[in-house]
Write a structure and sequence with these properties.
CATH architecture: 3-Layer(aba) Sandwich
Strand content: 15-25%
Shape: globular
Number of helices: 6
Helix content: 25-40%
Number of strands: 4
Length: 118
């Protein structure tokens, strides 16, 4: 499986993660989170495989998250409803995301991503 790097080009953290992948000669397919927003099916699979709480998949510092007052609304939503919401707007999803054989990485933490090199 080829690595899939899902990012927003204007995001500085995404740019940093992309540079890191390139500097470490890690091949990847690049995908824009806004123009190619992950589907509900993809998100369901990835969230399950990531072993992360669905809350970790929300871009809690994003303007859209705050604009929609999701901090309050998510409390009363089921997982399917949350996934549908995430798939409706790429700006709601935490980024970058790296889908690889070695795991699913949400956000850029170099220490975690180094496991790709092992």
């Amino acid at each position: 499986m080829k690595n899939i790097f899902i990012q927003y080009p204007k995001c500085s953290t995404c740019q940093k993660a992309k540079r890191w992948l390139e500097q470490n000669n890690i091949e990847f397919i690049e995908r824009n989170i806004v123009t190619e927003t992950p589907t509900t099916s993809e998100l369901s699979q990835w969230i399950q495989k990531s072993n992360q709480d669905i809350k970790k998949w929300f871009n809690t510092s994003g303007l859209k998250y705050k604009e929609l007052n999701l901090k309050e609304k998510l409390i009363n939503m089921g997982d399917k409803e949350k996934i549908k919401l995430l798939s409706s707007n790429g700006m709601l999803i935490k980024r970058p995301i790296l889908i690889s054989d070695k795991g699913i990485f949400i956000g850029f933490k170099e220490a975690n991503w180094k496991t790709l090199l092992v």
